[in-house]
């Protein structure tokens, strides 16, 4: 660059600065999420367009979501909040909200309305909004099986089949936590999806769930990390595996794994944003949130990962996978043909009973 | 040693005596005082050299740990949130549901809390704290807090209508029992116990007991790992000690290379080897020893933890053993044999007893390290290979029950310190050899 | 181990069996580390030898995992972090540790046992406990998730090694040398640099190496105290292993093994030099 050009550049930069000094100061937003494919989908659907529209903003990804609650609490207790925005599960959000370390959200005032004018609080799927929580996606824990493990005329098709070792022999990979497993045990035992949590909050209900799990105990392998479940299926290690629908989609559609998803009894949960209280760039974060949770942006994320947008108005906009060209709509947990018998995870229940049931489950696993 | 030589030095100079006949130095100060002063100066110099590190360790290491341990008894939540209720509860006999004045006090406490800025509200933490003792107490608190401004007298009915738990004596017993600044309840929980209705500490229902057995498993795994390192370490340490130094140093590389190799590298190596689709299973299938469906589960269980940790800790056993064995004169064994002892007897009666200090040093070292191990069990241990450290980490990072994490951590720390003290008694900390 | 002539057949069998056992154990120690080296050149994303690899077909081998590693910004950042944090922590712990060792090895040092116990404690306390304590404390003084926090934490963990190695070199140290220098009119500083330093240098350097490797290899404290900006190589490997273990990990591991070999060589040379200097003849 010649010195003349430099001078022009400099002077124009100065005039821009003079026009809106604050807006042009470079700012970086630290956004905490789950890492891997999930952060990548957010990067492409939310961060990149936002940074394009606001060139002075740099978004730094931190994949600390798994332990976000602890860090957030420590940061808040120290009065030194360094994170701007955190992606977490609603149950963690509820705890953080109770402790007052994340901001309460006035959804209609802070978030964009749907294109047809429906206010945010009505556009987001029922039950998904939290006091401090803004959902982005619906994901579900689904049962997946390896067709090759069963004869062609006797393929499994329901959660009840997971608990039927006689007709559907083979090992089952379940996650090493009580959530989902206890729900399924009751569901397979004949409890109506709507009544599951009512039953589970009684000691008899818990006993009933564990008794049902006992029937398949000897056939279970436990997995811990999300990546293990599809791996176990791909290795032919198990006949059934539970897993997150996005991971399973990747394994089946991208990696070509031979497996099928059973949508019966899918356990539906949300994932979304919370804003740490006293964060460094609150105003900008709100701007980002307004942008990143609008109808189009939520629909865009589904181009990169098979999790359903949390807004009703986004459903119609879900198109093809950006890289694979697969029509994503049928792979959404919320697609009508998949959403026939969902169990909606009750986060309030798990915040209340989680500790106790986790202890009992840990004890049960080692028996 | 230095003091004595100092005395002789100064004595050589100070041959004069003062009026009272005491020895003095050349400038007239009594020798005794001069010596004391010199001594004190030396002491201060020594202290001054140590002081920076000591301060550093105390501030950035010892204090944080003490602070963490404090969390295991710190119990501010209930006292902060419910001061009036606790006063009103003083007259309650612990039976049945308390009377109206207690509920009125509860109402007043909650109303006052709602007026505080959100970050200072004590009700949220109160709910989380009570939920550790009684499931669903959290939602009892948070749901009630939302409707409390609309409550009308009699408050007792208003509260019990808002959530069933307010009508249960259990919740009130917990509030009364835990309504003080310090608590033992985290230790009670860490020992798989709980309080019964009369406030006695009793065992938890069997299906909720996990920590004691986890401590037991941690101990058992550590013993197994220590034993394995001994079984594998003793022969090679012995073999190395019989070799001429040149060869021994060369073969020692086999021990030292793992020692110097990153822990994560060694752990991933074992994942690569032991997986279902890993090198060992594939080799066995390839050679036809096992069928494709008969692959061994060598990892994500106790086997994985034991194999990987034995490998990782083996050098800690071999090095002290080797340094002890080097000092045992071979002539002892020869003497025993020439006196007619069978080789095995000579080994057992003469050689082996002399290696005991090395076995003790290596064994305690390996045991101490393995009992607090976190990384390898977390990566290769699966469910059954988890150890107490993993549970501590989980409570800090995920369940957020920091009090319980601190109680478990304190118990682990005390255990390790006792072991270290024993180790010190046995071999002395100075003898820790590195590399 | 030469075999005496009077050995019976049984003795001989035992003699050889014993050697076989020993070499098997050496194999157990080395094989897992060495086996990763060829596997890191696997052209396929597997952790096992493919048919092409076994037949030494060049198509079975590739540098793709090394390219992956070198092309990844997060791995490169982790390398920078590991070295900068390691070096900074080493400087802090070596300085403080050496001074303390000098003080501790003076016979006038009061409460030696207690102080030694405290100084050694970072080596004894289980890492998870140190990490938890530091996580809480560092958060409360605003140095969690900063370079300063990680460096201080690693310096604390590294000091015991410096104290131990330097104290060890001082055991054979003849204190009269210092008095002689003082008598001849040397200032304490001059005495230190001219007399003490050269003698304890091997101890200092190997202590520094231990401190460096402690930081370089440390992961538990990093997991708790470091933020995404301070991720080190082990932290990156941890994520790699837990999320999706690809042979890139093996490429990293191979490089780290090479580094360990280099370090091992340095330590061995130092040890020999130290023994020579202190007049300890290798037996």
Automatic annotation (TrEMBL), chain A:
The keyword Signal is assigned to this record: yes
Top-level division of the source organism's lineage: Bacteria
InterPro entries: SBP
Pfam families per the UniProt record, alphabetical: SBP_bac_8
Family annotation (SUPFAM superfamilies): Periplasmic binding protein-like II
The entry's keywords: Signal
Keyword field contains Cell membrane: no
Protein name: ABC transporter substrate-binding protein
Organism of provenance: Roseinatronobacter bogoriensis subsp. barguzinensis
UniProtKB/TrEMBL annotation, chain B:
A single GO BP: transmembrane transport
CDD domains for the chain: TM_PBP2
Tagged with keyword Membrane: yes
Primary site of residence: membrane
Residue span of region Disordered: 1-25
Gene Ontology CC annotations of this record: plasma membrane
Keyword Iron-sulfur attached: no
Sequence ranges assigned to domain ABC transmembrane type-1 in this UniProt record: 215-423
Entry keyword set: Cell membrane, Membrane, Transmembrane, Transmembrane helix, Transport
Membrane-traversing stretches: 44-63, 218-241, 247-265, 305-325, 359-380, 400-423
InterPro entries: MetI-like, MetI-like_sf
Topological category with respect to the lipid bilayer: Multi-pass membrane protein
Compartments reported by the entry: Cell membrane
Family: Belongs to the binding-protein-dependent transport system permease family. CysTW subfamily.
Protein name: ABC transporter permease
The organism of origin for this protein: Roseinatronobacter bogoriensis subsp. barguzinensis
UniProtKB/TrEMBL annotation, chain C:
Origin: domain of life: Bacteria
GO BP annotations, alphabetical order: transmembrane transport
Topology with respect to the bilayer: Multi-pass membrane protein
TM spans (from-to): 20-41, 83-102, 114-138, 150-173, 199-228, 248-270
GO cellular component terms, A-Z: plasma membrane
InterPro entries: MetI-like, MetI-like_sf
Subcellular localization(s) per the UniProt record: Cell inner membrane; Cell membrane
Family: Belongs to the binding-protein-dependent transport system permease family.
PANTHER family, sorted: INNER MEMBRANE ABC TRANSPORTER PERMEASE PROTEIN YDCV (PTHR43357:SF4)
Organism: Roseinatronobacter bogoriensis subsp. barguzinensis
Pfam family, one: BPD_transp_1
Record-annotated ABC transmembrane type-1 domain positions: 79-267
Main location: membrane
Keywords (A to Z) from UniProt: Cell inner membrane, Cell membrane, Membrane, Transmembrane, Transmembrane helix, Transport
Protein transport is among the record's keywords: no
Name of the featured protein: ABC transporter permease
